[in-house]
Amino acid sequence: MSVSAPSRRFCGRDFSQEEMEWIQALVARSSFNRYQLSLRVCEHLNWVNPAGQLKGMSCRVAMLRMERAGLIRLPKPVHRNSNGSVRASALQRVHDKNLQFAGSGVFLWL
Q: Model pTM?
C-alpha cells in the first residue's frame, strides 16, 4: 500500500502535492499577473465548470488563500479593488491614525 502526499483544499478543490509544487514554480518563475496565472493554472489542471469554462475566479481566490497560508507569493494586483469596498488593511491604517490623534486631544476622523 502506497501512501500519497497530503493534499490541500482551496475553493472546493483538492490540490495534490505535485500540483502545489507546479503552482509554486509557475508563480516563482513567471512575470504573469494574477489573472494570467489563474488562466495558466486552470488550463494545466483542467479546472473547469460543467459548461467547460475555466474557473478563473475560483482559481484566483484559491491562489490568494494559498498566499495567505504562506504557500506562494503572488505578484502585486494590477488593478485596485473594483467593487468599491475598502480593504481591511486600509481600515486598520485609518483606525491607527485616529488613535494617534485621540491621544493628543485632537480628533481627526478620516
A: 0.67
Say if CB 42 and CB 59 are below 8 A apart.
yes
SS3 content of the chain, % helix, strand, coil (to 5): 50, 5, 45
Residue-wise pLDDT tens digits, 29-39: 989 999 999 99
- Taking the C-alpha atoms of residue 80 and residue 49, their distance in angstroms, rounded to an integer, is 27
Q: Kindly list the domain boundaries of the chain, sorted by start residue.
A: 8-79
**Residue in the structure block whose three cell numbers are 491562489:** 63
Dihedral (CA of 8, 25, 62, 58) sign: negative
